[in-house]
Amino acid sequence: MMATKSTKAMTAMTSTNANGTAPAHIPAPAHGIADPGAYGWGVFHERHPALVRRLCEGNPYGPEQRARLEALLDESRTGRVRPPAPETAAAAPWAARDRRYFGRPWSEVPFLWAESYFYLRLLECVDHFSPGPWQGVDPFAPMKNAELTDPALESDTAWLDGLAGAPPEEAFRALVLASLYGNRADLGFQLIQAVTTPTDGDPTDGHSTDGHSTNGDPVANGPGASGAPLLTDDIEALWKHVSRRPPGDVHMILDNAGRELLADLLLVDHLLTTGRATSVVLHVKPRPYYVSDATASDVRDCLARMAAFRGEAGRAAERLREAAATGRLRQATHAFFCSPVEFADVPADLRAGLAQAGLCVYKGDLNYRRLVGDRAWPADRPFDDAVAGVPGSLAALRTLKSEVAVGLPKETVDRLDAARPDWRTDGSQALVQARLRP
Q1: Which of 84, 226, 420, 425: disulfide with 88, CB 3.0–4.6 Å?
Q2: Calpha distance 361→343 (Å, rounded)
Q3: By three-state DSSP, how is residue 168 classified?
Q4: How far, CA to CA in Å, does 208 sit from each of 113, 230, 239?
Q5: What is the pTM of this model?
């Protein structure tokens, strides 16, 4: 079984600054991949081999591509970090700048850097950056398409029809929770489920850790019906932020394509339709990343699939297409989003746009790791402290699938540690955390 929890971290490691240097002050050790008891070790020794098998099953790769993928697996588990090929480095400036780990054993590299670099090298292995028939081809497309064409996808949105006439705050909460629980549809995380058997369930017996019942939720018949309990719940504060102030731009830093993206788009439609956002900017990845991360083509494909739905979801797709045509829904991307650099060190051009937004919504586990720092923080470290260097008003919607967590009451952490030792990494818990400014 894959190891999913470790109290050990790599005391000699740091995360990556925008200029490829170590921070002057190391407030907590970075999570690593060397300890067999750590989550990062399991990602490299169990998730990645399963991923390579799926890629070779879903793509007609030739012997050279397959051999390179196997060599990357071997290198990342027992070898030293090889620099990228020139065409790869040209597509990923951060990897060309940040040369600290080249030539060193992968086991000495921080988890966040190592994982991001693995996916960059994976694209190199399948000729994504090289002139030829595979240049620019998404190796994860077969997996994404299988989810998007699932016949059950339309019925998964039927709950939306029941929101007609619901009180505004209740409808908002339902759509935020749908977007949050959509994060459980991470294809990379599902690869873990194929090689391990984590137990689903809720040690809080249907209640979130802040005392709010989850049994009477507005999305009881929708994506949130079997959702993880909320360890922190700042949805009420979010509601006040968007409902009691003049409308502004909302920036959503997307995570996964497929079901999660569909739920995200339904939330976006709600914000635009109700006037709680003047416009919405969807920040997508500039290239395939972390298996199911959303790109511009994934947004296009998801809207096309939604448009074929009957009911409110289909009408939402048409409204979103019209919003795109009039500039109220925009897509943006940046090389930063396919790097291990933390959001506190976001480049100046991207920082300016995020700082001016009325609200920035950070979706998913990877964005959370980059938001608070992928380090062994005490789980009761205040969320506001962890995101102090990140611009603007922000909210994090996350299902927990990695070891880092902040902003949790100590008694909650102690209870979960005793009742469910793998709670940080098994997808059984979720949170909505916000740092809002006037």
Answers
A1: 84
A2: 13
A3: helix
A4: 33, 5, 19
A5: 0.88
